[in-house]
Every structure is written in structure tokens, then in C-alpha cells.
Amino acid sequence: MNQSLIEPAIQPVGDSGLMVRFGAAVDPDIHAQVLEADSAISAAGIEGVTELIPSFAALFVGYDPLQTDFETVSAAVRALGPMKSKERTSGQIWQVPVCYGDGLSPDLAEVAVRTGLSEEEVINAHLSGDYLLYMYGFAPGYAYLGGVPKEIQLPRKTAPVRDIPAGAVMIAGPQALVTTIKMPTGWWIIGQSPFQFLRPGEDNPFPLAVGDRVQFTRMSRDDFERAVGQGAKT
């Protein structure tokens, strides 16, 4: 792992927040520094800080403008010094089953054509990926995973498709995601999973934490139907 440290850029966000930026790429080493900044700022107990939200390459720091201001919080963050990268193995590993084909992969054939691979080779490439949960965003429980193998990376579609159901396993560029609610998307849908990334009835509705890892596994259509029928959370 690259242990070089990046001096973050700190920018104001409105009158009640700031963004600590370590770069712009979807990169595990950069993200490790985002997580370390999250941990260090949380432990520092900076007066007035109300929330911390990590993303791919930046950390949002929210604060109460009645208690503090941008200059004070920014100075406190810089005073913490360089953010040393955490070991990437610290997160929990989750097994997420996927059913490919059988009417559940509307874009699998097109992904195969565009990448020059067979459908089975696309599936095997997807299963071989090492996926890291970088952030939540866009919709409840949308866990953005980096780690899609280069041979199946495609840009998003030119136009979104409406009414994509929950559980759709999608890829776009280096990212993968499993939908949690019916939504439009311009990502490529290559399978379906019964795994629930959003569990609103539980004390912790987001079982996976930023920094956790995902390994996709293959399941049959019969096992998929059985899991869905049993209301599987896996």
C-alpha cells in the first residue's frame, strides 16, 4: 500500500460546513486518508463540529455556526497534522450473493458486446473484483463500491432507465452498487441480489460501514427465489 500522505485542501461549504479534500480519484489509498481524517477529527472533539460525512476522496465536516466558524474549525483540522493512512484490511468483509442471467440481467449481453467478452467472462470478472465501500449517497442505502475490474468498466448510459427495482446489481466505470429502492439509473444492470443494504426496521439500518469490503458470490435462480421468498437480509 502507498503510504505517501496528501496535504488536504480545505474549502468552505455554505456557512455551516467545510470540505477536507484529499484528491479527486476513486482510489483506496486516498480513501484510507479520508477515513483516518474522519477518525482523527472525531477523536479530537473540536468544539461546534456536528457531523462528519466521508466520501470517495473528501470528508465533509459540519459545524454549528452559532458556536464556531470556518476559520476556527479549519485551523483545528490542520492542527491535527498529516492524516496517516489506515490499513485497508480493518473493515468487515461481507458476502453478497448475486443471481446473473435468467431474466435478471437486462444489460449483461450489452456489457459483453461493449467489452468484447462473453457473458460468462463478464460475470467471472465481476465476481473477481475486490470491492471497497467508499460512501453512501444519492438514495437511502446506496452503498458506492469501488473495485470493478478494468475489463468490464464502462461509462454510464447516455440516458437513464426508469423503474429499476431494489436489488439490482449495477456497474458504471470503476464503481458497483446494489439498489435499495425503485429508482431510475444510467448504470449497467448485470444481476439481482436478495442482500439488503438498507434495513429500515433495524436499529442500524445501514449494516455495512464505510471502509467495509464486499465479495460478490454467485447464486442460482432457485436459491434467489427462495431467499426473496424468505425475506432474506443475508
From TrEMBL:
SMART domains: AHS1 (SM00796). Residues 8-208 form the Carboxyltransferase domain. The keyword Ribonucleoprotein does not apply. Keywords: ATP-binding, Hydrolase, Nucleotide-binding. InterPro entries: CT_C_D (IPR003833), Cyclophilin-like_dom_sf (IPR029000), PxpB (IPR010016). It holds the Pfam family CT_C_D. This is Allophanate hydrolase subunit 1. It comes from Pseudohalocynthiibacter aestuariivivens.
